[in-house]
Design brief:
One of its GO terms (molecular function) is acyltransferase activity, transferring groups other than amino-acyl groups. This protein has one domain: Aminopeptidase. The protein contains five helices and seven strands. The protein has a seven-stranded mixed sheet, with helices on both faces. A hairpin with a 5-residue loop joins β2 and β3. α3 crosses α4. The chain binds coenzyme A. Coenzyme A binds next to β4, α3 and α4.
Amino acid sequence: MAVVTLRRATPGDIGYIMMVERLPGYDYFIGRLDADQHVQQLNDPAINYFIGEDEAGTPIGFTILSGLDNRDGNICIKRIAVAVPERGHGSRMLDAVVDHTFSTTPVHRLWLDVVKDNARAWKVYRKAGFKDEGVLREAAVMPDGQRADLVMMSMLRPEWAART
Ligand SMILES: CC(C)(COP(=O)(O)OP(=O)(O)OC[C@H]1O[C@@H](n2cnc3c(N)ncnc32)[C@H](O)[C@@H]1OP(=O)(O)O)[C@@H](O)C(=O)NCCC(=O)NCCS
C-alpha cells in the first residue's frame, strides 16, 4: 500500500492549501480561510499544519490540528482534505495524522466533528477507529444557508494504543 508521509506546512504551502479548500463541492464540508488567516494560524503555537505527501514527495492533501495547548489533552482535527478524493489518500493521511499525534503529543482525546451528510468522511473516520460521541443538532450553517447537524467523533489514547 502506498505510504503517506506528513511534514509541517510552511507559508509556501498556503497556496496549495487554499486551492484544495476551494475545490468544487468542498465548501459544503469544510471551511476556507484567506491567506492572511492561514499565516496567522501557522504562527499560532496551538495550531499545527501538515501536508501529506506520497512516496514521490508530491502533496496529496493537508490537515490542520488545533488545541495543541489544551490543558486536558483534547486535540482537534480541525480540517482535513485531499486534492483527489476516493483514491485512498484521505484514509492513509488520516492514519498518519492519528499515529503522529498520539506518538508526538500528550493528547488523550483526538476529536473532530463532521457534517452528518458527509457520508464519505464519516466512513473514513469510523474506518480509522473514531467513535461517534453525539450529534450537535443544526450546529452548522451550510453555504446555501441551510443548517446541518454535526457529528462529534473521537479516538482516545487507549483505543489508539490497542490498535497499534
Ligand atoms: C473526506 C476525505 C478527506 C476522505 O478522503 P478520500 O481520499 O476521499 O477517502 P478514501 O478514498 O480514503 O476513502 C473513502 C471511503 O468512503 C467510501 N465512500 C465514498 N463515498 C461514500 C458515501 N457517499 N457514503 C459512504 N461511504 C462512501 C469509499 O467507499 C471509501 O471506503 P472504503 O475505503 O471502505 O472503500 C476527502 O474525501 C475530502 O477531502 N473530502 C472533502 C473535504 C472533507 O469532506 N473533509 C472532511 C471534513 S470533516
